[in-house]
Amino acid sequence: MMTLFNLLNSRKINDETRIFSGLSSNSNSVYIFWGLLIIHVIIVEFGGRVFGCHFEGLNLEQWLICLGFGIFGNLLAFLLKRIPEKKIFPGELDYQLEFVSAASSRTLDKHGQEPLEFNSQNDDF
User: What is the mean pLDDT of residues 17-22?
Assistant: First the structure.
């Protein structure tokens, strides 16, 4: 069940908190979500003999516990996205930003190497 909640939560990156926005605009993602939910329920309820686990499936209380774990995971992700990263890693982000800006200002050749610079004033290579 937590896999389905993770599926919803992983749709957004860069600290976006509205995990349901734009969900219905992509019909494939809706079909995949409902298909996974149905397959998940079938496997849990009727796949006990095949997978060698509990033969009777889950009762209502166990399903609600699984649902609670999934909701808790999404709430925790929501709260963690609301915390600014500078409060957690105060000095590390500045170093990363300097490294990225220095790396993005360099020109690399097709092999990812810095090109050789030749000075026309000096014949020393």
Answer: 76
